[in-house]
Amino acid sequence: MFDGRRSVAEAGLSAQSMSLSGALPVYAQSAALCYRTSKGGPEILLVTTRRARRWIIPKGWLINGLTPSESAAREAWEEAGVLGPCGTDSLGRFAYVKNRPGKASALCLVDVFPLHVQRMVAHFPEAGERRRKWVSPQVASSKVSSPDLGALLAGFGLQRQ
């Protein structure tokens, strides 16, 4: 269940996410906003989901023995094949409904940590299951389906200029 760091109401989420909070179990996850800087400004790395092939940022369940930011860095490696320093302060939070085969759906509250990509490799654990794409924060914002995540991505571009 939700880890209690903040209540669902204090998480700063959209009305749509809030309306689901009473109907579903709530779980915590962490994500890595993988970025690099280029002459044109910051770029964000998006990856596809394994089944639906939607664009997202690397995210997943918290890993026992790791901090949330360390869990985010591990997800970035497994899902995108990137390495670099991961910040320990969350940039923000987004929510989504996770449909779990054979289990009830759940509301996931995802804390997002910045990861400055210093190395990107071709061979990584989920390389055959995902695509990767570097885009501007504005394009990243328009490609993800979550309005909360889209706003966070667009805001990252403003913070870094």
Automatic annotation (TrEMBL):
<keyword id="KW-0479">Metal-binding</keyword>
<dbReference type="InterPro" id="IPR015797">
    <property type="entry name" value="NUDIX_hydrolase-like_dom_sf"/>
</dbReference>
<keyword id="KW-0378">Hydrolase</keyword>
<feature type="domain" description="Nudix hydrolase">
    <location>
        <begin position="25"/>
        <end position="157"/>
    </location>
</feature>
<dbReference type="InterPro" id="IPR000086">
    <property type="entry name" value="NUDIX_hydrolase_dom"/>
</dbReference>
<keyword id="KW-0460">Magnesium</keyword>
<dbReference type="InterPro" id="IPR047198">
    <property type="entry name" value="DDP-like_NUDIX"/>
</dbReference>
<dbReference type="GO" id="GO:0005737">
    <property type="term" value="C:cytoplasm"/>
</dbReference>
<dbReference type="GO" id="GO:0046872">
    <property type="term" value="F:metal ion binding"/>
</dbReference>
<dbReference type="GO" id="GO:0016462">
    <property type="term" value="F:pyrophosphatase activity"/>
</dbReference>
<protein>
    <submittedName>
        <fullName>NUDIX domain-containing protein</fullName>
    </submittedName>
</protein>
<dbReference type="Pfam" id="PF00293">
    <property type="entry name" value="NUDIX"/>
</dbReference>
